[in-house]
Amino acid sequence: MDTPLDAQAHDVVRSAAPRALATEAVHAGRDDLARQGLHAPPIDLSTTYPSYDSRGEAARIDAFATTGAEPDGPPVYGRLGNPTVARFETALARLEGTDAAVAFASGMAALTAVLLVRASMGLRHVVAVRPLYGCSDHLLTAGLLGSEVTWTDPAGIAEALRPDTGLVMVESPANPTLAELDLRAVAHACGSVPLLADNTFATPVLQRPAEQGARLVLHSATKYLGGHGDVMAGVVACDEEFAGRLRQVRFATGGVLHPLAGYLLLRGLSTLPVRVRAASANAAELAGRLAADPRVARVHYPRIGGAMIAFEVHGDPHEVIAGVRLVTPAVSLGSVDTLIQHPASISHRIVDADDRRGAGVSDRLLRMSVGLEDVEDLWADLDAALERAHGATVGHGAPAAAVGH
Ligand SMILES: *Cc1c(COP(=O)(O)O)cnc(C)c1O
């Protein structure tokens, strides 16, 4: 058996050598397991933790209230922190190259916590670049949390900053158009105002925004990090100071992640690099075929790659949605199977139609999250759905062809 001292020595040795992303994906957040005689991480479902030392607990609660640092020893109560969720947070921080990460019940709960941290400091003004995910756009536009937003393009960020600006928010590649930004240039334009980059689409496999100057890296972990369409979660990767404030807001507002979800996310991270690379290869192939197809008007595929494609058809996009059989017609993304949806109807429906169109989200745009199926099977399904959409348009102008349909 290891003595505690030996155990510490192991940790020092293990953290000394920098490890590649693929290695971190399967080992980060699990460094202590072998020492404990475990292979799979344990799931701690406790909501409370016994302690006979209430003076000690008082001191630990005071310390949390001061810095938001994770309490030493067992957590006091599930809303303060959970060991299984902490494993996922540690692993994601390693993948994003940040000090820390703080997990929430959903991506929107994570964004809410960021806005509340800044609002609690009197910094209610947000500068943001469209497009953003529809509900992020809505949260800012509606001012539900008392924030006020100025929408601008990347070149206008520096000018849009005010003394009360608490946050600059961008997505790259953006949902749903896959528009890309120069994150380094954007971070520079922010000066001392924290830049939040939503990295949901790229994942740390393709892009690490913290290395380019983003102070906050947000994920809807519901998407690629979970990766199987069965976990809803959000996470913010950042420095320890901001993480402390996020933990305090999480404690006060309660948007915690369930430990089972934390377990599934840690497991999801272990295959993240493999999934993202395989799905990206499929997506690149499909993007090429769509771009060469006369039934398709436009294809958007990011320079950095990835498993998301956006495209516009000459025909009726609703007929493409109605026509797929292997591909699942559903909102969300980042699962092992391929999903397609019509942003103007679903993911970005809540955004005002003029704002939506102004951000490049045309009524003809379809967004597809490419999965791990065989690419020829995917193409056969898409081809049939495109044919149906194409036929529907042709039928409109030709009454004879519409008879009997
Ligand atoms: C889905 C999504 C969100 C919101 O995440 P939820 O987990 O659904 O709350 C935020 N940003 C992007 C880019 C998304 O795709």
What does this structure look like?
This is Trans-sulfuration enzyme family protein. Belongs to the trans-sulfuration enzymes family. The chain is of the alpha/beta class and 405 residues long. It folds into two domains: 4-270, Type I PLP-dependent aspartate aminotransferase-like (Major domain) (Aspartate Aminotransferase, domain 2), CATH 3.40.640.10; 273-404, Aspartate Aminotransferase, domain 1, CATH 3.90.1150.10. Helix content is 43%, strand content 14%. The chain has 15 helices and twelve strands. The chain has helices spanning 4-16, 21-27, 54-67, 83-96, 107-119, 134-142, 157-160, 183-190, 203-206, 240-253, 259-291, 317-323, 353-358, 375-397, 399-402, and strands at residues 100-104, 125-128, 148-151, 165-171, 195-198, 216-220, 234-238, 296-300, 308-313, 328-329, 339-341, 365-369. The longest helix is centred in the C-terminal third of the chain and has 33 residues, at 259-291. Residues 1-10 and 396-405 have low confidence and may be disordered. The structure holds pyridoxal-5'-phosphate. Pyridoxal-5'-phosphate (PLP) is lined by residues 106-108, 133, 135-136, 171, 175, 198, 200, 220, 222-223, 232, 234. Pyridoxal-5'-phosphate (PLP) binds next to helix 5 and helix 6.
